[in-house]
Amino acid sequence: QWIWSLQSLKHTPSQKQGMSWQTESHERSRAVYWMVQAAISLALPQIIIATAATYLHRFYMRKSLQKYPTKEISATAFFLATKVEEVPRKLEYVVKEYLKLGTDSQSENSNGSEDPKDFERLKHHILYYEDILLRTLCFDLAVDHPYLPLIHTVKDFHVKSRSMAQSAWSFVNDSLMTTLCITTNPSVVAAAAFLIALSHRAI
């Protein structure tokens, strides 16, 4: 139930409510970007970003961005992923990092809000949306990622170039900014990343 056709991307809840796919795609990417920044600040592994991003992309195939704002859902998916992947961070830390990110390009460069009301508001929203996120995901929180198939592929082909393996890994990471994780089997994503890295090396 977690793999959608490319045709389905033209009929998401957000688009049914009037949002263009270009805008929706941008908002999804920005939400994942926030996850990346928060993970770096909190010294969390890549698996947190991958799981959280997958939750977010799945969520917005069933709910609209108009009703469920990306910043709150991004923070909620991120917080949930830290618990599911068993590298938890206190909710207060997650809230603090997301407040630093702001809501637009100008405020993203700021040091974040110091207003206790903003802190409590976002904290409340994360706890509120967590239940909605869990229900929307049908409490099915296990996610298969391309990383393990990619590792097997690198070993099977006896790749000795560390830079090539890192390039393939980076391609998988970058794909999280897109909807590839909900339209393509993880093993196919891994194979594609490997081939792209191989072709770049050949060039």
From TrEMBL:
InterPro entries named in the record: Cyclin-like_dom (IPR013763), Cyclin-like_sf (IPR036915), Cyclin/Ssn8 (IPR043198), Cyclin_N (IPR006671)
A biological-process GO annotation: regulation of transcription by RNA polymerase II
Regions that span the bilayer: 31-56
Entries under Gene3D superfamilies matching the protein: Cyclin-like (1.10.472.10)
Keyword Transmembrane included in the entry's annotation: yes
SMART domains referenced in this protein's UniProt entry, alphabetically: CYCLIN
Molecular function per GO: cyclin-dependent protein serine/threonine kinase regulator activity
Domain Cyclin-like: 33-135
Superkingdom as given in the UniProt entry: Eukaryota
Record keywords, A-Z: Cyclin, Membrane, Transmembrane, Transmembrane helix
Family per similarity comment: Belongs to the cyclin family.
Name this protein carries in UniProt: Cyclin-like domain-containing protein
Organismal lineage: Eukaryota, Fungi, Dikarya, Basidiomycota, Pucciniomycotina
